[in-house]
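Comment thread on ticket #2218

A.B. wrote:
> Attaching the input chain for the structure job we discussed in standup.
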Amino acid sequence: MSSLKKAALWTTGLALLLKLSGFVREAIVSREFGASAETDGYFLAFGFITLVVAMISTGFNNVFLPMYVKSRKAKSDMTDQNANALLNWTMLIFIAVSILGWVFAYAFVPFLYGNMKPEIEPYAVRMTQIFFAFMTMIALTGLLDSYLQSRRIFVPSQLAKLLATLMAAVFALLFSGTWGIYSLVYGFIFGTILGVLIQLFFLGKSDYKWRPDFAMESDFKKAFVILIIPSLLNSVVGQVNLFVNKAFASGVSDGAVSYLNYSSLLVSIPNAIYATTLAAIIFTLMSEQTDDFAKFKDTFFRGMEISLVTLLPIAIGLLVVGDAAISFVYERGKFTSTDTENTYVALLWYLPIIVFQGMQLILSKSMYARGKTAIVFRISVTTILINFILNWWLVDDYGYPALAFAASIVSIYYFTVSMIVVYKDLGRNEFGRFARMSIRVIIPAILMGVVVWGAKELLHAEEWYSLIQLAVLVPIGIIIYAGALRVTYPTGFNRMLSMVRRSK
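C.D. wrote:
> Ran it. Output below, let me know if you need it in another format.
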């Protein structure tokens, strides 16, 4: 456990640095290009990257990791051969996907985004072609993440993600005058290749040995195929919903896709940090504890506890200071105060996702760890229909904010149904344990929000420069929340402190 806690500390730090790099990248994009047809095209094309990343980091990982860990614990002679064959076959599949995507981008991009405005289409198509040309490398970095995670090696994958984001920012800063918005694409690809090299180096230092094997053990292959199909489908449900949202937004007005993307970036930060660090470690532990139900339940509860304790105050904090955060990150160059206001409106409707998606991640991971892939799929696939209906029903009357609202409703629905399924298995006592913990966390979070809002109004902080607002109001929020949490939920407060101290 000590090594896992140290890994959590390192990966959390790198994840924070990764998101800081993402802010730098988005700040450069907003300064150079504002909210325009170019940025809308870029964000539409980048959706294919997030789709592949979700398929590998979520769909592949959720099946491969429990099976591989179980095989290693059983000390099967075929463990590494199965892993090698799986990696090799997956790479061949993505080579084919890369070629097809490059050749047919001109046809499927306009088809998927049927309402796309004519001025957006050339950017979306061309950038999609470039991304697909290097899709095999993008998929490989996700695959290597799973193989490293199976050996409790978490840091190199964070470095790989950091390089992809950082290089996109650096290329945009250095070459935007030469390549325009395409500099972001070239930088991302260059950083991805560097990241793959780092991952391969650390995987090579472990006991894993790559071989050009293509033969898999029959039982392993059958089990993997049975589980991977619903897992992959489940992993792309969120991206399908994102595609639907972007398709509707691309026909609303210029900048609508960008407003949703800029606001969703802020919303995604807590969950991205959490998912790539603590949730990954918790999933590894749950995968190892499926034979010990008591330990499994305790680890699951810790995951839900960490989710709520860390994510709820962030959501409430952004409710109060989100406008200042958007202004500080984006408002410069071609990104105006009007763009800030439009982005903040979307952010407000996105906020529930921070909390519900974070806890949903633990709920889904617990089901994956116990091999309940099909159940997760049956729950998640219904969100596509709900999301589409809400988008179609609301967007004409309420514009792009309705798309953010629909995304939040979907996340609440997904969380609720998953809670029913998981706690039906874990029992009423475990649900009662979660409910008692939730009340003790919600009270200090609401108190923090009220105090920070009061301070903002009393000090007329909205008239200050955005960074000064954040520098004053955020520490107030942290102090109030920590103090109140220590009173209402001392066990959870001390546990969080203990985890940090022992990871040093």
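A.B. wrote:
> Thanks. Noting for the ticket: The chain has two domains: 2-426, 427-504.
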